[in-house]
């Protein structure tokens, strides 16, 4: 199972009923789930970090390791959290935060969105195979009866 499907497996376990995956023409991927949204409060052990940042930068939470792995393998990753009426944002480059998690506005939505671009310095190819990903997502959906997954491919084929 690839990194997108692994991330979705984790998200399915945290109250999401809808997941959207978009393969963009620039090679990046956006994954959104309508779960509770990653926690935005400060971490108890490392109070200089939010819990969301800790989830994206360490392997401390076995149920969330896919996010840290996806972040570490990405050239860039943008995180948006919709939680408790607020929108929170943080950017990462090569697995490291470039800024603190910041409140960026309000929203009635809830959930987590990541937009990432795999690092071509790590992978020989950074292109996702639509058929393989689609198959993995169907398998995931079959394990979670109440989960709806939408896969959109915006890439053009010539």
From TrEMBL:
Gene Ontology molecular functions: ATP binding; DNA binding; DNA topoisomerase type II (double strand cut, ATP-hydrolyzing) activity
Main EC class the enzyme belongs to: isomerase
InterPro entries xref list: HATPase_C_sf (IPR036890)
EC number: 5.6.2.2
This protein's record includes keyword Mitochondrion: no
Gene3D superfamilies with a match to the protein in the record: Histidine kinase-like ATPase, C-terminal domain (3.30.565.10)
Keywords, sorted A to Z: ATP-binding, DNA-binding, Isomerase, Nucleotide-binding, Topoisomerase
Family per record: Belongs to the type II topoisomerase GyrB family.
Protein name: DNA topoisomerase (ATP-hydrolyzing)
Organism, scientific name: Occallatibacter riparius
């Amino acid at each position: 199972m690839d990194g997108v499907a692994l991330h979705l497996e984790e998200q399915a376990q945290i109250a999401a009923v809808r997941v959207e995956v978009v393969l963009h023409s620039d090679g990046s991927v956006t994954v959104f789930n309508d779960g509770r949204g990653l926690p935005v409060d400060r971490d108890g052990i490392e109070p200089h970090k939010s819990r969301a940042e800790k989830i994206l930068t360490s392997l401390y939470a076995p149920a969330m390791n896919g996010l840290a792995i996806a972040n570490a393998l990405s050239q860039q990753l943008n995180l948006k959290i919709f939680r408790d009426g607020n929108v929170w944002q943080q950017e990462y480059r090569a697995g490291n935060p470039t800024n603190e998690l910041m409140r960026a506005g309000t929203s009635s939505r809830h959930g987590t969105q990541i937009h990432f671009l795999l690092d071509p310095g790590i992978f020989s190819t950074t292109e996702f195979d639509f058929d393989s990903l689609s198959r993995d997502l169907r398998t995931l959906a079959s394990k979670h009866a109440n989960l709806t997954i939408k896969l959109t491919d915006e890439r053009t084929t010539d």
